[in-house]
Design brief:
Length: about 450
C-alpha cells in the first residue's frame, strides 16, 4: 500500500506539536529563513570588515553585500540537503553566494574564514535578534506582576508548605516574588545579550589565512567584523572555548525556570477545588464543554521542564577537543534553537498570563478558615507562652487542635472556653488576616527594585 503524500513544510518556524512557541516572536526569529538571513549577514559583514581594513577592494564588499541582501534568492532546503556533504550548511552556502556574486568579486566571498566562523557568528546573530524580542515580553510580565503585587499588598491568603496550609501570607508578596524572578531573568538575559561575540579565527583559530591574504594586523580584524555585526569583539577565537554558548544556555534555562515557577503556582491555585486565581481566558477541551483549562500556564510549565535538558547538552559541549571539535560543536545547533524557541514562547505566554490573571481575594479569605483557625497556631504558641508557660501552651494547643476537627469547631471558640484564658482578648490573635507578618513591608521592598 502506498503511503499518503506528506504535506509540504511551508514554514519551518511553526510546528503542529509545538504550540508553546508557535506564532511567538521567537518563532520567526529562529526559523530557517532567519538562520539563512544570519548566515548571509555574517558572510557580507566579513567582506565589509576586510574592505574597511584595506584587505579587499571596497567594490568586493558592495558586491557581496548586494548578493547576500536577498535570502529569497537562496534555497534553504537545498542548502540543508547539501549540508550533509561537509557536515554544515556554510559550505554549500559559500558556493551559492560565490556564484551569485560572480566575477570578478566572487573569490572574495568567505576569504580567510572557516565554516565555524560563519555559523557561530550567525548563531550569535540569531540569538541576539531573538533575545531582543524576548526582553519586551519579560518587561510586560514584570509590569503586570508589579501591578498585582501593589494591588494585593494586603490581600491575605494561606501560605502553603509541603502542600499543606502553614501560616497566612499575602498574594501581594507572592506576586512580588514572581516579579523578582522575572527581573532576575531579565538581568541575566540582558547581560548575556550584551556579551554575545562574533567568531573569527580561520581554520584553527590563528587568523593565519587573513595574514596570508595581506592583513598587516590580523588581530584587529575580529574587532572590525564585530562592529559590522553589532556583536561583541571576542578576546580570542572561541571555536573550542564555548563559554558564550554555555552562558546563553544558562540564561535561557534560568528564564524558562523562573517563568515556570509562576506557571506552576498558577496551576495549583487555579485548581477547581482551590480557585484562588484563574487565567483570564482559559482553553477549551475537545470532550468537556465546561472546562476552561489554564493553557498559558501549562505551556510555560512544559517549557520549564524541557529547558534544563537542552541546556545540559550545551554545557556538555564545553568539552570540545583540539582547536576545532568533531561533534561537540555540531551537537549545539538544534538544542540551542529549541531553547531559544521554548524560552521565547514561554516569555510571550507569561506576558499574556500575568496581564490577564484574575485574583479572587474572597476565596483566599475563605480558605484561611479551612483549618478551623489552626493556621495561626504558631502565633498563639508565641502569645500564650508568657500567660500559660511554654509547656502548658503547647499542650493546650495540641489538645485543641485535635478537638477542632473532632467537634467541627473553630480554635477561637475552644480557646474562649479555657478557664485560664478568661478575660484575654482572643479575636485579634485568632484572625488569620492579622497574621501576615512583614508581608506588606517585604512587598514594598521588592517593588522598589526597578
Amino acid at each position: 500500500m502506498t503511503p499518503p503524500a506528506e504535506p509540504a513544510d511551508t514554514d519551518a518556524g511553526t510546528s503542529l506539536i509545538a504550540p508553546g512557541w508557535a506564532g511567538s516572536p521567537a518563532a520567526s526569529a529562529t526559523g530557517e529563513g532567519a538562520y539563512l538571513r544570519a548566515l548571509l549577514d555574517a558572510e557580507a559583514a566579513l567582506t565589509r570588515a576586510q574592505a574597511a581594513l584595506g584587505i579587499v577592494p571596497a567594490e568586493a564588499a558592495d558586491a557581496v553585500s548586494t548578493a547576500a541582501a536577498d535570502p529569497g534568492a537562496f534555497d534553504a532546503r537545498s542548502l540543508a540537503e547539501r549540508a550533509r556533504g561537509g557536515g554544515n550548511p556554510v559550505i554549500p552556502l559559500v558556493a551559492d553566494l560565490t556564484k551569485a556574486v560572480g566575477e570578478p568579486y566572487g573569490p572574495y566571498v568567505h576569504r580567510g574564514a572557516t565554516s565555524q566562523d560563519i555559523l557561530d557568528t550567525a548563531t550569535m546573530l540569531v540569538a541576539a535578534r531573538t533575545l531582543d524580542l524576548l526582553l519586551p515580553d519579560l518587561a510586560r510580565a514584570e509590569r503586570a506582576l508589579a501591578r498585582l503585587a501593589a494591588e494585593h499588598r494586603d490581600t491575605p491568603m494561606p501560605g502553603r508548605t509541603l502542600t499543606q496550609h502553614a501560616v497566612p501570607t499575602s498574594f501581594g508578596l507572592k506576586a512580588a516574588g514572581w516579579r523578582a524572578l522575572v527581573l532576575d531573568a531579565r538581568d541575566r538575559i540582558t547581560a548575556v545579550r550584551d556579551a554575545l561575540p562574533a567568531q573569527l579565527g580561520g581554520a584553527a583559530g590563528t587568523l593565519a589565512a587573513f595574514e596570508a591574504y595581506g592583513a598587516t594586523d590580523p588581530v584587529g580584524l575580529p574587532a572590525a567584523y564585530a562592529r559590522e555585526l553589532g556583536l561583541r569583539e571576542p578576546l580570542l577565537p572561541w571555536h573550542t572555548l564555548r563559554a558564550p554558548v554555555a552562558d546563553l544556555a544558562g540564561a535561557l534555562a534560568f528564564t524558562a525556570g523562573a517563568l515556570g515557577k509562576v506557571a506552576v503556582d498558577v496551576l495549583t491555585l487555579s485548581r477547581t477545588e482551590i480557585g484562588e486565581v484563574a487565567e483570564g481566558s482559559g482553553g477549551g477541551s475537545s470532550a468537556m464543554p465546561h472546562k476552561a483549562n489554564p493553557v498559558r500556564s501549562t505551556l510555560i510549565a512544559a517549557a520549564a521542564r524541557r529547558a534544563p535538558q537542552l541546556a545540559a547538552t550545551l554545557y556538555g559541549s564545553l568539552a570540545a577537543e583540539d582547536e576545532r571539535p568533531a561533534g561537540a560543536w555540531h551537537a549545539e545547533w538544534e538544542p540551542l534553537r529549541d531553547l531559544l524557541r521554548l524560552t521565547g514562547g514561554a516569555a510571550r505566554d507569561a506576558a499574556e498570563l500575568t496581564e490577564g490573571l484574575r485574583v479572587r481575594p474572597d476565596v483566599m479569605r475563605a480558605h484561611l478558615g479551612l483549618t478551623h483557625g489552626l493556621i495561626v497556631s504558631e502565633r498563639l504558641s508565641a502569645e500564650l507562652a508568657p500567660v500559660l508557660g511554654r509547656a502548658r501552651a503547647k499542650e493546650l494547643l495540641t489538645e485543641l487542635a485535635a478537638r477542632t476537627y473532632a467537634e467541627d469547631r473553630s480554635l477561637g471558640e475552644l480557646l474562649a472556653e479555657v478557664p485560664e484564658l478568661r478575660g484575654i482578648e482572643l479575636a485579634s490573635p485568632t484572625d488569620p488576616a492579622r497574621y501576615t507578618g512583614a508581608a506588606g513591608a517585604l512587598t514594598d521592598r521588592a517593588l522598589e527594585r526597578r
